[in-house]
Amino acid sequence: MTEFAVWAPRPELVRLDVEGTLHDMVRSDDGWWRAEVDAAADARYGFVLDQLDVEHPKVLPDPRSPRQPDGVHDRSQLWQPDPSAWSDGDWAGRSIEGAVIYELHVGTFTPEGTFDAVIEKLDYLVDLGIDFVELMPVNAFGGTHGWGYDGVLWYAVHEPYGGPDALIRLIDACHRRGLGVLIDAVFNHLGPSGNYLPKFGPYLSSGSNPWGESINIADADADEVRRYILDCALRWMRDFHADGLRLDAVHALVDTTAIHILEELSAETDALATEVGRPLSLIAESDLNDPRLITPRDRGGLGMTAQWDDDIHHAIHSAVSGETQGYYGDFGTLEALAATLTHGYFHAGTYSSFRHRRHGRPLDTSTIPATRLLAYTLTHDQVGNRAVGDRPSQNLTFGQLAVKAALAILSPYTAMLFMGEEWGSSSPFQFFSSHPEPELARATAEGRKREFAEHGWDADDIPDPQDPETFLRSKLKWDEIDEGEHGGLRRVYRELIRLRHSESDLSDPWLDNLKVDYDENARWFAMHRGAFTIACNLGPEPVEVPVTGAVVLAWGEPVVSAESTRLEGHSFAVVKSSSTTGRPVDN
Questions:
Q1: Which SUPFAM superfamilies match (predicted)?
Q2: pLDDT over 70 percentage in the chain
Q3: Any catalytic annotation for residue 103?
Q4: Dist CA 318 CA 323 (whole Å)
Q5: Which residue from 38, 142, 144, 431 has the least number of CB within 10 angstroms?
Q6: Of the residues 248, 287, 421, 422, which is catalytic?
Q7: Apex CA 544: angle with CA 542 and CA 550, to 5°?
Q8: Residue 551: helix, strand or coil by DSSP?
Q9: Which 3 state secondary structure label does DSSP give 574?
Q10: pLDDT tens string 169-200
Q11: pLDDT tens digit string along 458-498?
């Protein structure tokens, strides 16, 4: 016999459908309905709420559905992980602090767009020097392709990627190669297609955020909703052996209770890590610049392992590219770049012209290591949320891309790459969706065009998210990775990561060991880390940087003299003061 259970305090009647046969369920005082039924291990099932029509009942999927083989609008399917599918028993895991993370979207990473196809590229990532693969959301969402942030059945794995068994194969293959796996989890809102949870109970609150109605984590009857979130998060790490989660936009988790849900999740994740005998990490995406997020719980913080740091992205990108519109408005200078790299946040109780108010809080760099902040030159957001989804590689020179990489990868922060950036991929990463409902599809496309038209873009230039070509254009072109400057950039990325891993000065996690020099007018910037200096020329003309020593890695052809190093326009050199050997990588 199989026990079926569902939390559904709202309906007066709940019946269980197993393979087309209806069964009565018994309600308890806590709003849970239960029934024991003889069912096959892979039986299809769902729930019928407040309907007496036995001939044509509307069967809804299980809010905790383990599998949705026919999409988010259809019946769920029983599924349990097969213990014999795993071969990673000797995987000891590792913390993400100080690692190099590679963010990828399963559907566009390969032509096939599946978990199994990702496995075929893992050796490439190992050769590149990657430590962790971070998967953009793989939970079940409406349609065949999309970014995954509009999930509605958080426990199930998106079937077009290969479903739960294929995800197990991917994570197991990663662990056999020494790669950790992080899963992007979205707990701040639900998607518009296939969201039946409000029919079961008060999953949504009276508040809202930019993506829709907020999740009920602090209003009446929130305890079971919080448990729904916590159990889902733990499931990815327990049942699928993920090494941690990236938590989407945690600033949208408005929690007025005394114990914040992130603190609760941190404590339960630590307990699970002890149980499974390996480290488990939580990375929060937050735009608050609040160090309490990454402060340990025993010091009054929420206990997240690390957080995304958009200030570092903005400072590097704006300084190199010259873009200063929108939220780049306070950045763009080398002074801003220096302040951000040496303090972790640029806005730390300072005025933000984009927000028209003070923003952030200072980071105590004596107690919080830099490795709790993620540095990156690219993310899915920073590309896909641009009007036409253009990458920096479509607007900058390869030298500028190399300078950005050197600053991010050789900084003290935990480093992250977005798929394809390492070779300057020519593919855009555009916003795409495949909502099956015509009205929703039309609203999504029109809303996207209207949003950017208000900022001066021609609406006709905005890609239609529902057009299949928008999705196909966003797939990586693997045949270009060794072509010309693409190949040269990829080799430089590999060498940057190798240096980061092999040199203790470049893996030091403390910001008090980072010093910078710069010349705003000459457009050179030097980041000193022990015996190493990362000297960068952000301008188009050659400059003399007052740094000397042996060049161990470079983009371009630096010329070292007794007093300085001459850098070509848009180039960098890693100079080691105590060495007399080394040469630029051939690019």
A1: (Trans)glycosidases, E set domains
A2: 98
A3: no
A4: 5
A5: 38
A6: 248
A7: 110
A8: strand
A9: strand
A10: 999 999 999 999 999 999 999 999 999 999 99
A11: 888 899 999 999 999 999 999 999 999 999 999 999 999 99
Determine the pLDDT at residue 150: 95
Choosing from 490, 518, 534, the residue where a domain stops is: 490
One domain, residues 249 and 361: yes
CA distances from 569 to 364, 402, 403 (A): 36, 12, 10
Q: What is the pLDDT of residue 584?
A: 44
Exposed e or buried b for every residue in 122-160, given b needs 16+ CB within 10 A?
Answer: beebeebbbbbbbbbbbbbbbbbbbbbbbbbbbbbbbbb
Alpha-carbon distance of 334 to 340, in angstroms, equals 10
What are the structure tokens assigned to 92, written together?
């000891």
Among 65, 120, 81, 67, CA closest to 240: 81
Number of domains in the chain: 2
Q: How many residues does the chain have?
A: 587
Binding residues for substrate are 246-251, 310-314, 380-385
Range of the domain at 233: 93-318+355-490
Type of residue found at 241: H
Give the three-state DSSP class for 413.
coil
* Same domain, residue pair 29 and 98: no
| CATH code for the domain of 13 | 2.60.40.10
Residue 285 a catalytic site member:
yes
